[in-house]
Amino acid sequence: MDQSNIYRTQSRLYRKINAAIHRWRRNTALKGIAIVLAIFAVGIGLIALLSSTWTTAPYLIPGIAVVTIILFLMAIFRFIILPFRHDISAEHIAQLLESEHPELEDRLITAMDSSIRRGGVDIYWLKKIVAQASERTNNISFEKAVNRSNPVVWYALLATAFAVLLSVVFFKTQWTPHITQMVHSDFKAPQPLPELYVAPGDHRMMRGAGLRVTATVKNYVPSDIMLYYDNGDSTWQSVIMPPQGSDQADVGYAFFDVQKEFDYYVKAESKISDIFHVSLYDAPQIKQIDLTYNYPSYTKLKTHSEKDVGDVWAPIGTRVTVHALSSVPVIQAELILGDEQSIDMTMKTDTTIQASFVVKGDSFYKIRLETADGLDNSPLAEYFIRALKNQPPAITVLRPNRDIQATMLEEIPVKADISDDFGMQDAVLVVQVNSRDEQEIKLQSTDAKALKNDLTYQTQEFSTLLYLEDLNVKPGDFLSYYFRAEEGKDKATVSDMYYIEISNFDNIYKVATSAGSGGGGGNAPQFAKLQKDIITAANKLLQNKNVMPAEEYTINLESLFKTQVDVRTSIESIVQRAKLRGRMLQQEQNRIVDALADAVAAMKLAEPRIENDSLETAMPHMRIAYHHLIKADVLVRERQISNSRGHGQGGAQNQRELTRLFQDELEKMKSKYETLQQGDNEQVQQDNDEALRRIQELARRQNQLNQANQRLAQQNLAEEEKQREIKKLQRQQEEINKDTQELMQQMAENNAQKQQNAEQSAQSSNELRKASQAMNRATQKLQKAQPQNALANGREALDRLRKLEESLQQMQQDGLRDELQKLQKQMETLAQSQKDLTESTKRSAGSGRLDSTAIAENRERQESIRDKYESTLDELDKISQNRDNEQAEAKRELKQVQRDLARKNLEEHMKQAESLLEKNQVQEAERLMDSIHKSLASANQDLNKAMQGLKKSSDQELQKALNETKALRSKLEDLLAQNNPENRPAGGSGSEKSTEKLQEELWKSRQQFRELSNLLSKNPEMREHFRDLENATNGIVRQTLPGSQRLDLIEAQLVYKMKLIEAELQAQLHIENELEAVQNLETVSIPQEYRDLVEEYFRNLSSTKRK
Length: 1107
What we know:
It is a single chain. With 1107 residues, this protein is α+β, with helices and mostly antiparallel strands. It folds into 8 domains: 3-184, no CATH class; 195-281, Sandwich (Immunoglobulin-like), CATH 2.60.40; 286-388, Immunoglobulin-like (Sandwich); 401-503, Immunoglobulin-like, CATH 2.60.40.10; 525-668, no CATH class; 680-813; 816-950; 952-1107. Helix content is 59%, strand content 15%. The chain has 29 helices and 28 strands. The strands form 6 sheets. Strands 2, 4, 5, 7, 8 and 9 form a 6-stranded mixed β-sheet that branches. Strands 21, 23, 24, 26, 27 and 28 form a 6-stranded mixed β-sheet that branches. The N and C termini lie far apart (184 Å).
């Protein structure tokens, strides 16, 4: 390589390096310009964007401008001036490449050395160095090595900056005025304008819900912020909005139970908000429920429909179809059966839905509706399902309902009433002559067409004639009969067994007419009666064998066997002793003894069968024995008739000796006989007494448990100790509940065995079941460590037990009116208590001083009202579930009251009021309490409407007036005693309170006298008496007499007159009862031939009285 080539190679390397230098300078300038322009664009953009905030932050814009200028200058220095101040040369580029590419081994630096270019080195060596440097840098990009940043990024940044600047320039009319105002005001912020914000503004909400209106003011604090609203009558009302917290500029006001649409606006001094409108929508509600019952075949009932009900009463296996009507269109609905099962309901129309289910046991169901807006009908109303058990029929034999004697040609009318709920298939009269096979006569009801197709207890009358001649009987025979009501296969109820003895007409007539004759020898011993009672007892054992406990059955069977042995032994003794007296065995006596001997032989055949529990095979022999004993009785009566005709004193003497012999044996077994005869009646009474005793014991234990629960709530125990006490109460409650369920089962079994009144049995079982359910709820609350709620359930259980105790003691249940009156009185008392509490809270709020003691007392009073309210709801539920078809209208009213109270959710409002009092928000609490009071007063009015549909007799009105008068007089007497100076303690600190309480009671008495006057509107005399009391009370209230004179006036004009009125009410009530008893007597028809004599008798009686 010659020297010129070396220089060309070196020049080529220089050109590459110079290109890299130019590229670096261009990219560096691009980067610097992009960064500087971006900083400027961001600063200008922030100033434009935040220009409107300069009034609240006047130094923000200048601050941004200063920062932007500083960053702008720093960027120019850092990214433009500084890089070009220290320019780079070819040697710097060569050194950079050598450092990044060690394989060059300093050849590039050596080839670029200026001294080498001036020829200061060996040409051969230089040639080699330059060639190697050129060769090894062919694959190296000088520009990439020098320029590592991507110019695309800087171009994008530069474009973005230009775009921001163009936007700022484009929207300059929106921000330049703020900047101009800022500059002209020397950067001093002007006074901000007042601002008022109101929420929620225009609002749509559910009817009956609550609404809270809030207002916030800015830039000033007004003295009062007023809320103006109308009630739809174009009149505006105003209230002061209280602060929501410590900030006086943040206020709020709550509307409770909004029922009407309204407009509102907020005014804060001169600042007035827009007028906003609150519109309402109705959540879906169940307007009506109709039920269709498809009864199972065994009930013999046709398909039945009920309108506007809801609660289900049906036998097990009934398919119930529920037809529900919604108040608004819905898109879907479901029926919730019990706690778990959900059934989709079929949409018939947008407001009519339907579903069905099969009754399998006691349960409940709820219906959930949903609209297109996603609203439902919460809280869901519960409708109970009562699975009715098939109660056995009750048979009452009307005629002849006793054992009789008859001739073999008579026609005996027999009649019975059979009452049943459902399922009875046939009524049969079972007749058996002597020991022959039983004959069954199917009976037809005389009033079958009048029967209703429902589940109420209905009574049918069955009757027929027994043609004794057709039964081929003769004197000395007997027949027994009883009624049987059949329910399905192997299920039947039978009546008591009655007997007809067949005698000659002469025997029947002359025994009755010769009772006072001298030669009769007294009454004949009734041999057959003993055996007849044994047969009756054996028949009852056969009937109840399947339902009677095995132990009880064995005891009764042993008693029956011993009684049969005793009767047989006694009669056998009579036979043996009579045979020893040979002089007695004349023809007639011999026949009597032979009949007795035949009876003894039949009894001996029956005894081993009775002992081996084979009553069916023993029954024919017992009846044969009874047949022979009847023959013996007939012979005795014939002998009495003969003696009564005077046929010899010797025969009469023999008859008396034989009778004395019989009487001796009868006296020996008298006690055993009476025990067998009266056993059933005594057992029934004993069972009732035992049930009453156990219910009283359960009530006593439940009362003790409630008291312990109440004491626990009043004690301040450590948490661990409190949990132990709760566990103890829980165990006690479980034991009481267990005993209650055992009693319920035992009463049901006893009623089935003794064939007691099935309806009364169902009522008692239902009351015990409800008490047990309340105990279950109390146990669950105790498990959740909620003793207060458990106490409410415990009180409910106690009320159930005491009610059942009263029912068993009086053998009657209170009517719906009495229960509803009590409930209405409770609701009225609750409303008055809530009103008094509201006024007390209002006084505390108006005084401006928050007395913590008074607030705590009011909170406790609210809690007490809530507990009583919950108890009242339970009582309302109990009354509304009582099945009484005669008061359907009142029941619908009660159901509506229940639904309204559930919708208003007063329990939660009461809890909210308690919480507000606890937070010392007295004004809010006072308004909420006022809303609660209005709801309670409305419920009280609804209960009054329900009472208007109830019937009431005059004696009930008199009894109510008497009870209320007594209670009112007693209260007045107590207050008079408290106000008597002689009874006051020293110091007389409570005299003012006693006087105020007396005055308050007088005002209440005036209203009660008016109500009693209206109650007795059909009794003019008593109505005037109570009006006089009302007027007297008005005069006393308005008079200002000294203390003692005032008390004397009350005593004379009120208390004394009330005692007189009580006596008159008691007398009228007694007369009413006597009239009712007289009206219930059977009217006797006087034969035509005697009417003239009877009328003459009464005319004479009347004239005698006038004299």
